[in-house]
Amino acid sequence: MFVDNNDKKITVRGFTFGDGTPRIAVPLYGATGEEIFAAAQAIRKEIDLLDEKYKDHPECKVAVIEWRADYYRNVEIPENVFNILRHLRGLFSDRAILFTFRSEEQGGELRNDRAHMHMEMIMRNVLTSGLVDMVDVEFTAGNYNIARATTGAHNSGVAVVMSYHDFNDTPHDMDIEEKLRQMDILGGDILKIAAMPKNEFDVRRMMELNQRVVIERTKPVALISMGELGKISRVNCKKSGSCMTFAAIGRGSAPGQISVDELISRLISQT
After folding, report:
1. Average pLDDT score over residue span 110-124
2. Among 178-182, 220-224, 236-240, 262-266, whose mean pLDDT is lowest?
3. What pLDDT was estimated at residue 112?
4. How far is CA 37 from CA 28, 43, 132, in A?
5. Pick from 130, 222, 231, 235: which is nearest to 183 by CA?
6. Minimal CA–CA distance to 12: which of 145, 207, 123, 154?
7. Average of per-residue pLDDT across 219-240
8. Looking at the annotation, which residues are catalytic?
9. In Å, how far are 99, 149, 152, 191 from 123, measured between CA atoms?
10. Rounded to the nearest 5°, which phi and psi values hold at 180?
């Protein structure tokens, strides 16, 4: 469940997004149930160690466990997905669970046609399970599909992370702002855009744009530069006003992700 505070912030399972504290999300992968369970146990063990190591900085806790379900081979089987979610909910009762089913076009593991073919059924089953706090909805899915997904999520008390990824370039500022405007209208609760920079100017531009749009927008925003050049945007997210940053325990989900331990250490050094 999530609480919409209607003041540029939302609270999900006790973590507030948009209050100036960048919330840390960790991706979780696996092609089989066994791989997913093993990865989940490893993540649980690591975040417990990090909680103790950085106990004087509770604001730096890992807030979100993102299950990248597009890597799961049996994602079309509702009972399998339910069993995995039930396991994750029990293991991460104190963290928000984000369900992400990424299309190939947006950097996912599955073929694009397969992803879109099963999206509505998969999303409906996930939402009715009552086991997730957030779902990722791709901005490229089309207005009709987006509207159905966001309405279903909100009716189930689930927050929507509306996302857009560009793995080739960083769009112009006006293009990014227009995408954010449309994401807002279409029902995104957290508006996330990740883009690949061509140079340091692109990275700086994304960070400065994030600073500006968090003042102008009514929703929490996360603008991320990917790749080696973009690492600084993941670390300087508090300065830029980004509400969310992604880091890795084990394998990352996008170019440029650093380890959670390194991220927390660098966030603390900035305070």
Report:
1. 68
2. 236-240
3. 45
4. 10, 10, 16
5. 222
6. 154
7. 90
8. 165, 192
9. 9, 7, 9, 19
10. -65, -40
